[in-house]
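PROTOCOL LOG
Step 1. Enter all chains and additional molecules of the complex.
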Amino acid sequence: MSRLRKSHPTADTSPNPPLLAQGSDWTFEELDRCDAEIGRVAREYGLDGYRHQLEIITAEQMMDAYAAIGMPVYYHHWSFGKHFLETENRYKRGQMGLAYEIVINSDPCIAYLMEENSLAMQALVIAHAAYGHNSFFKGNHLFRQWTSADSIVDYLVFARNYITECEERHGLDEVERLLDACHALSNLGVDRYRRAGSLSLDKERARQQEREQYLQSQVNDLWRTLPPRPLETAITPEPRFPAEPEENLLYFIEKHAPLLEPWQREIVRIVRKISQYFYPQRQTQVMNEGWATFWHYTLLNTLYDQGRLGDGFMLEFLQSHTNVVHQPAYNSPWYSGINPYALGFAMWRDIRRICESPTREDREWFPDIAGKPWRETFDFAMREFKDESFVAQFLSPRLMRELRLFAVLDDDRCTKLAVSAIHDEPGYRELRRKLADQYNLGSQEPNIQVWNVDRRGDRTLTLRYFPYQRRPLSEQTPVLLRHLATLWGFKVRLEQQAADGHVTLLGEHVMERRR
Amino acid sequence: MTVRIVDRRLDSRNKSSVNRSRFLRRFKTQVRRAVSDAIAKRSIRDLDSGEKIGVPGQDIGEPQFHHGRGGVRESVHPGNDRFSHGDQMDRPPSGGGQGSGRGQASPDGQGVDEFLFTLSRDEFFDLFFDELELPRMVKRQLARINDYKLVRAGYTQSGVPTNIHLLRTLRSSAARRVAAAAPYNSRLRELEEALAVALAQNPPDEAVLLQLRSEIESLRLRRRAAPFIDPIDLRYSNRIRVPEPSTQAVMFCLMDVSGSMDEARKQMAKRFFMLLYLFLNRSYERIEVVFIRHHTAAEEVDEEAFFHSRDTGGTIVSSALKLMTEIQQARYSGSQWNIYVAQASDGDNWGGDSEVCRDWVEQHILPVVQYYAYVEITDGEPQNLWEEYEKLTRAHTGHFAQQRIRTPGDIYPVFRELFRKRLT
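Step 2. Run joint prediction.
Step 3. Record the structure below.
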């Protein structure tokens, strides 16, 4: 792999500073020196992250952290035990190297270094996680908006203690059943479009409605002497509840499930909050990994150009780096979709190229950024986008050609698959739109909303599924309805509303917890 | 500013062990079934390791709302080497996923594969003992080597007064006193020589003599002032505890393999033998196992043949007992062998043979063995062998035990006496 032609941010000042990172064994002093040097270069590039902290852990602890989706503290649940066993198995069989790094979006940002890694790997991880991911966490609007880095660890500690307390008080089985149900619904437990903090407005509205109801009751009093008209009231359809469909299932459960105890609501809330915390990560995988990869590559190459790193170090580093950004072709036996590291890294590099040496094509496609300073463009792109919009905005024709992208249409009404766009002049825009859609969680995850609650009758909860591109729900749906019914406490129905407005019943689960 | 580096390697080693035990707890039935299968495959001697077991994948899935197969999907792939716009191709076979992108049914599609993992030795024992319904004390005792003996391991400078080693202590006391006196000795020698010279003068200078004498006297006093025993002289015998599985034992497994002993009964018998083996394994350093199977005639076989081959025909139990005695006299005579016998049968015996058995056990076997355990795996009425053995139970409590069993939970009482002896 060719190294980037770089511009020296600083000239070499000292004639012969000692090489960093000689040999493969690391010591704390050397880690410290590496971090200081990488940090110096990062500051010269203007990277801005939270303070960070490096933690040395063993392979086993890395697997632990893996099992608890990377968090340093987490509540206990059998599924984490299962993930641990899975990871351990694959690791022992050698099918999988452990992750180089886990980094936690918190302030201070915590980056884990595995003790088995060589010094070169540690340097790579420091550059990747402690400077790359860290600055992304701090800058990107989704993370700024949805996560509070300063309090997440505290919240997790609270969650673990709270759930442990519930287990002691109400029994393991009870809590486990509740958590199972919440986990099953967790990907429908996020607010997609609005910030959770805007509750004050809702409260305001609620208060206003209360006032209205009060006035109304006064009015009714005045009219009580009139004979009632039972026929007409029976005919008026009961207003739906909730008045607007609610996409956040767990939120709805937490606020409205009739029979949940307060502690159960709190646990629902915990799962919902944590799910929400991870939502930005799921939306920015390509950008985030690409960003971190771009920066470890750039920072370490800069250090090399300044004469601070030896050739041996660079060879080891480049070998790991190329493994990370390897993208097998569609017909390779190792192909398993687009590698987010590869795509992200290629895109960031391409943006820099467009800024620094644009071609005529680039000027035509990217008039706003072609020839502009690349660091400013980078910060803009990093702050304001998510994967979907990032691809839609910045994927260049040249990169599509380089990756030789093509789109395949799979329509179950046709007997064959069709190639719907390739990397050619008429296909660029199509291809880019399709790839962007692939990263749109809104279309990748089923759109299911809380539609109605039969408040006067048997309290049946009705959900409505709005299929995207006629895609059906997976066959696990009955199990999920059962979980939902556990939380709701009454009958749960799932309807499907097709594009033409036609509504069909997909399934229901009968449950009666009332005495 | 230097970065903060925290070394976490030493803290909270087994963070996920709670989650792991939760996992085992949650899938206890499945895991138990798997352990049961594993026991069937294992040798009874091979108990001290963990076990790799599998539970069905669909039982442990974590469902989420996802799209299923079908509808319209479009996916973008890299590495185009032959397609142009509008090309058509066949769907790849489902599950392959290549070329068609999201071919798999569900992204978390753990599917139906078995979920494999390794149970640690302790977890394996837990489940095994659970099945056998062992009392807790016994479980603890079996799962651990807890027999220690104290062996000498040199001397230390600290300890309890009863362990003071006098010889060593006095030796270091003497050495210290010699060393402490050394500087005075050379000075004394000089003074004594000077005194001799002074005395030889005629007439002696009284003032000099007095001075020399007083100096010699004070040096002698100081030399003597070194204490006879100082705390640093003390030496204690050091003893350390080492696990002690003491000596050797032989375990005879006797089993009826006539037609009526089916596979399920043999598996039950296997657990019975395993439990005894496990017990012996904790108590003895070396254990030999002899497998004797019998129908009308008895033979010594290896473990594989013992548990898995079948014969038909009648049953003469005494043939096995006699063979056992033969083997015992030929190979395991003498006092260095602790002999245990475990006999399993379904209770059938040739008419008239049962009395022979009882006599033989009483005359030839019980005098040489530590423990004789008999299980009858049956649902039916007790038969004459059981009745004859009952007389032995009464006469030899503590050495002979018998039990009729239907489930693995019934096995433990056979060993109750045996384990009780160890516990008190």
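Step 4. Note key features.
Residues 95-112 of chain B have pLDDT under 50 and may be disordered.
Chain B has three domains: 17-60+112-132, 161-238, 248-423.
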